[in-house]
DNA sequence: GGTTATACTGCAAGCGGTTGCTGCAACCGC
DNA sequence: GCGGTTGCAGCAACCGCTTGCAGTATAACC
């Protein structure tokens, strides 16, 4: 089977303790001895057993990341960033995709918690009155939802959303629509609120549709509602919905950017590639992922930190060609 | 801290062995005792410690899944399927995203192998002459690349690709192009070969471009090459590239489906949503994921199976509106 | 040279479960 | 009534590694 610490010890004519220390607490061992141990261990292909180490150390060096849906382009950047950052700190990331099933979040999180040192939960949809139970799985850091008493990394979407509304207003649009995202989505609450506030401030007529699932198909549906209401500016909950809107508009002979302006949120890779290219609010998922890992490790490693620290990242509008001046009727 | 087996044993007035058996080898314990133990364990909120169990059992109940790029829409379905299937068998899935860095595959796989019972490697780009080293990390199952002497789940793309070529031929296209995918991609070799064979069989003029990275941007670039050559039918390595081609064609005033027909591969969710909707070769990634788990577990659990079994799944063309009859000049 | 500080290294006891073997008691049949 | 099964539960060793404490050799000091 595999080479164990004892094997290395035997080969080196030392005790297991010394070998152990030589490999993980270098300063406690004579330099010469250490080098010899390291060489022998390498030659024998020794690889420490994770389970054994976890058992004594009381930690697994695993961190859990839960996302609603890997297929949603908003999450891969977060996942990648979490993995990258985790790896830098010697942590492996366990990913759970709950497939948008809100009710699965808590049980999945509980299960996962048993195998990991801490949890990062992205865009949790769990209702407010049950968040305590997620919180109880501490250490846990939330991404994309501010939770009282818990550490979180949120993106200040208000800024970007306000920019989106201002952009439409500047282009002369008077009647705009906001397409709501999933019912339980904390992000949606934020985005919607910002749009409402900005619209009111700028004196625009705002109509809301939805809630919609974060899928292209939802946008296809929404597009018809928008056309029916004679609206000229649309801000969708996310890029997927926006893309659906654009596809449907084109299908119905309505020119996106000319007849109706469409804005998405997430600035996913597709937005730059759609036709027309999609104006979108950039949400720095990758940065959020890194920050989340840092926050989590800070808690796990018990560096004197508040465990309810809130990191806030900025969003901003990226203007492309799905938005254009309102037709002067 | 957490409730341990010893705690439960003490509370039940039994020895640890009995509790252990009551919980994991029910038949070796008196029914009455078992029920009592189960009740007490439940009441105390006992949860067996993963590391400890792994240590004695010699297995982690973790399986590793390596993919080139989570953000590539081809992989999420595979990931989801692997997770779902794994969960059904009490396995947790560890995911590694190598970010398309071929050189990272082997080291990442090696690292991951230490923590898991077996590996599923999707679309490995590692060159043939180094595949032995991946193979040496057995048990390992490859997805989307047939490897001699190793278990693998591949999708017979030849069928779908041939259908794609036939489709173009039936529509009257005589000069077609194939846009190659990444250099090291085994899939590309398969797809390309099938296109070549079918083109030759049907007497079409085939031009090849690439290799290209599997990104929308690649397609944008490729589109110009295609236009310059007066080609009317394009088969791209994957949907992303195809979407890029379409976007660029539209941008240049060329009508996809009318002037130039475009076919993608993967049948990703976006293909149904692009405008025009993208004709694409459906590749059953989800089924491949499930099959891979089954194959891996068969090897791990040592059910008398060849460990170089090849599962082959079929692909098929989904016709949408990005393809249409060739203009009769 | 004797003594104490210093620097390593080894011993052994766990970490939380699993499991082969032993022990014991109730039960069986003759 | 006795030997022989059979069914359960407990003992103890072990999985591979970490770590507090003790032991020893060497260095440093007076």
Give the helices and strands, then pairings.
2 copies of one chain form a homodimer.
Chain A: H1 5-12, H2 16-24, H3 31-44, H4 50-57, E1 62-67, H5 75-88, E2 92-97, H6 102-113, E3 118-122, H7 131-135, E4 140-143, E5 151-156, H8 157-170, E6 175-179, H9 186-202, E7 205-209, H10 216-228, E8 233-236, H11 239-251, E9 261-266, H12 269-273, E10 279-282, H13 285-300, E11 310-314, E12 316-318
Helix pairs in contact in A: 1-2, 1-3, 5-13, 8-9, 10-11
The structure holds a DNA duplex (30 and 30 nucleotides).
If you had to describe this structure to a student in words, what would you say it looks like?
- The structure is a homodimer of 329-residue chains.
- Chain A is α/β, with parallel strands linked by helices and 329 residues long.
- Chain A has three domains: 5-48, 434 Repressor (Amino-terminal Domain), CATH 1.10.260; 62-156 and 285-313, Response regulator (Rossmann fold, 3-Layer(aba) Sandwich), CATH 3.40.50; 157-283, Response regulator (Rossmann fold).
- In chain A, 45% of the residues lie in helices and 18% in strands.
- Chain A has 13 helices and twelve strands.
- In chain A, the strands form two sheets. Chain A has a six-stranded parallel β-sheet with strand order 2-1-3-4-5-11, sandwiched between helices.
- The radius of gyration of chain A is 25 Å and the shape is elongated.
- Chains A and B meet through helix 4, helix 5, strand 2, helix 10 and helix 11 of A and helix 4, helix 5, strand 2, helix 10 and helix 11 of B.
- The structure holds a DNA duplex (30 and 30 nucleotides).
């Amino acid at each position: 089977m595999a080479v164990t610490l004892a094997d290395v010890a035997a080969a080196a004519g030392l005790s297991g303790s010394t070998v152990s220390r030589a490999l993980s607490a270098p300063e406690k061992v004579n330099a010469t001895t250490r080098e010899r141990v390291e060489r022998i261990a390498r030659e024998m292909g020794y690889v420490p057993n994770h389970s054994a180490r976890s058992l004594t150390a009381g930690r697994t060096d695993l961190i859990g990341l839960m996302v609603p849906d890997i297929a949603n382009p908003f999450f891969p950047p977060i996942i990648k960033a979490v993995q990258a950052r985790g790896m830098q700190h010697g942590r492996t990331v366990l990913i759970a995709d709950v497939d948008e099933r809100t009710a699965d979040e808590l049980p999945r999180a509980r299960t996962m918690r048993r195998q990991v040192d801490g949890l990062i939960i992205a865009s949790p949809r769990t209702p407010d009155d049950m968040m305590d139970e997620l919180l109880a799985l501490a250490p846990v850091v939330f991404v994309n939802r501010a939770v009282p008493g818990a550490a979180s990394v949120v993106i200040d979407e208000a800024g970007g959303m306000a920019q989106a509304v201002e952009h439409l207003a500047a282009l002369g649009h008077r009647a705009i629509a906001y397409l709501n995202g999933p019912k339980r989505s904390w992000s949606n609450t934020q985005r919607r609120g910002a749009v409402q506030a900005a619209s009111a401030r700028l004196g625009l007529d705002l109509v809301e549709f939805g809630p919609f699932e974060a899928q292209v198909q939802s946008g296809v549906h929404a597009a018809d509602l928008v056309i029916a209401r004679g609206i000229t500016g649309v801000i969708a909950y996310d890029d997927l919905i926006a893309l659906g809107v654009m596809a449907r508009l084109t299908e119905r002979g309505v020119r996106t950017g000319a007849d109706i302006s469409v804005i998405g949120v997430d600035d996913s890779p597709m937005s730059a590639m759609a036709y027309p290219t999609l104006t979108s609010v950039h949400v720095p998922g990758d940065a959020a992922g890194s920050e989340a890992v840092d926050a989590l490790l800070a808690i796990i490693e018990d560096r004197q930190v508040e465990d309810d620290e809130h990191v806030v990242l900025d969003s901003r509008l990226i203007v492309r060609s799905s938005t254009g001046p309102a037709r002067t009727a």
